[in-house]
Design goal:
Chain lengths: 288, 252
């Protein structure tokens, strides 16, 4: 049993780190635009398919296919924002969230129309798992883990050192003051949506690498992404990472005790627990 | 020449579009003008109209003789006018250094040089440069807010109640900084509730009542004026302004 638990912890940390990538995109959009973008699942699916096309049709290696996933999802995210969400901006956050949900369904079905319902696999070499005593780790799992860490490091560097990243953080912190310092909120909103959706796309591709690609690959993630962001504190960048790892571990550990069909319950329980006990999340909102 | 010249400025919000009803004022380089008045007199609304956060319905705003009426906040910064708001005037999750850099957002090439000037002027900001702004005390935050505003080297600095919520000692220190900022050649317009202290450090004062100019003149003379003391200081000459609207009633 301890071995199984440790194995679940290892798998959970890896799964959580991958989940953190789209969760960061979700929370960044929430922090700057103040609404939950539920198209994030469909955007992850767009990224998964774009990466899959890049890999299988053009022979791109994973590290080169990830930027393709980013760009495709970023463009789709901008289209969702400008065609579905922005027209309802004046109606408030709830309407914007519903619009994003609807746009996500449209995107998902466009992908279904184009690619069909079959499961698609990346062109990957078959490799044996690495064994460390009683524990096993797949080389692909490790590569995905490293790629997820690289995505997060790049995001951190962008937010920390670039002028646009600093403007995003400023708008998330205090929109009115940012306006008074000359920040263009429309441009910052566009960059945030592109970066957030792009992260979702890369997250979708990483999940697709771990499993397979189908029209629901991202949609299945939405609850976990939302739970991770809520757990960490909506709008908090470090919170999204901590929340995603916690959700990843909890989902893996839950499988030890319950039927895997109940894995999704973890997300619901996390959201309920946070909203009841600590509504601002572990890191509080807008923790920077 | 006045750095900031405002003529018959009129405007307000969507729900109340005539909060400011023809305010006129002027501030010369190196001068400190304080604007006082009861709550609801339109003091903060004047600042929002000047910075482009609200669009004037009528009137004219000129910076160094150039008409800038109705320009966006971004264009106002480029023209040389910067506001320090009353509340939430720093980015709490950003470090002191990042806050200062945001003050030079439109001209990042000058950020390094300006940061050296500003931290030289406010050494506290150099000591705390890696600290998150939210961890600073109220007085330190006001200094950071001033430093951030001065990063763009404005010709005109607008301050909205800079001493609100500060201890008497911190308020006195901040007034001294405002005074020295004006002495460096910046035209400073300061809206204040702390009327007596504000007039003590200012060159001139303008009293707004019900969105209009009510009294104007050299600050020391106005501070001694029995009518002003009776209207806004309860005739005792101490403490902050009575915000109950006494002035408005007396005006009628």
């Amino acid at each position: 049993m301890p071995e199984a638990l440790i194995q679940a912890l290892i798998n959970g940390v890896i799964a959580g780190t991958i989940l953190a990538v789209p969760a960061l995109g979700f929370t960044a959009i929430f922090a700057v635009l103040n609404y939950p973008n539920f198209a994030i699942g469909a955007l992850a699916t767009v990224g998964a398919y774009a990466g899959w096309v890049g890999n299988t049709a053009f022979g791109l290696p994973m590290a080169a296919a990830l930027p393709v996933a980013f760009v495709a999802a970023a463009l789709a995210g901008l289209a969702v924002q400008w065609m579905a969400v922005k027209p309802l901006e004046a109606a408030g956050a709830l309407m914007m969230a519903i619009a994003s949900l609807a746009a996500g369904l449209v995107l998902e079905n466009m992908l279904r129309f184009g690619f069909g319902n079959e499961l698609r696999g990346f062109d990957l070499p078959l490799l044996r798992d690495w064994r460390f005593g009683a524990f096993r780790v797949g080389p692909q799992q490790v590569e995905n883990f490293v790629l997820a860490l690289a995505c997060m490091a790049l995001l951190w560097a962008f937010l920390r050192f670039s002028r646009t990243g600093r403007a995003m953080r400023a708008v998330a912190d205090n929109r009115d003051l940012a306006l008074l310092r000359g920040v263009d909120p429309v441009r910052v909103a566009a960059v945030t949506v592109a970066v957030g959706a792009g992260l979702a796309g890369m997250g979708g591709m990483l999940v697709g690498l771990d499993t397979s690609v189908d029209p629901l690959v991202g949609t299945r993630l939405v609850l976990s992404i939302f739970a991770a962001a809520v757990l960490g504190g909506l709008g908090s960048i470090p919170g999204a990472v901590a929340g995603a790892i916690a959700i990843g571990v909890a989902e893996e550990v839950a499988v030890l005790a319950f039927n895997p069909a109940y894995r999704l319950v973890v997300g619901f329980v996390a959201i309920l627990a946070v909203l009841t006990l600590r509504p601002a999340g572990l890191f509080g909102t807008r923790a920077g | 020449m006045t750095a900031l010249a405002v003529e018959e400025l009129t405007g307000g919000y969507a729900a109340a579009d005539h909060v400011v009803k023809g305010v006129s004022l002027g501030v010369a380089p190196g001068e400190l003008l304080c604007v006082i008045g009861p709550n609801g007199a339109g003091k903060s609304t004047v600042l929002k109209l000047l910075t482009g956060l609200l669009r004037p319905r009528a009137g004219r705003v000129a910076l160094d003789g150039r008409d800038v009426t109705g320009l966006s906040p971004r264009r106002m910064i480029e023209a040389g006018l910067v506001l320090v708001p009353q509340e939430r005037n720093v980015f709490g999750t950003l470090t002191v250094e990042e806050n200062l850099a945001m003050g030079c957002f439109l001209d990042p090439r000058r950020a390094r040089a300006r940061m050296a000037v500003v931290t030289d002027r406010f050494p506290l900001l150099a000591e705390r440069r890696r600290q998150a702004a939210r961890s600073l005390s109220g007085g330190q935050r006001q200094i950071l807010a001033m430093g951030q505003a001065l990063m763009s080297e404005p010709r005109v600095l607008l301050l909205d109640e800079p001493t609100a919520g500060l201890s008497p000692k911190a308020a006195a220190d901040l007034f001294a900084l405002v005074r020295s900022t004006a002495a460096s050649g910046v035209a400073v317009l300061m809206v204040e509730q702390n009327a007596l202290q504000a007039m003590e450090v200012s060159d001139r004062a303008l009293v707004l009542v019900d969105g209009r100019n009510a009294h104007e003149g050299p600050a020391p003379a106005l501070a001694r004026d029995p009518e002003i003391r009776r209207l806004f200081l309860g005739g005792r000459g101490a403490g902050s302004m009575d915000a109950s609207g006494t002035g408005r009633e007396t005006q009628r």
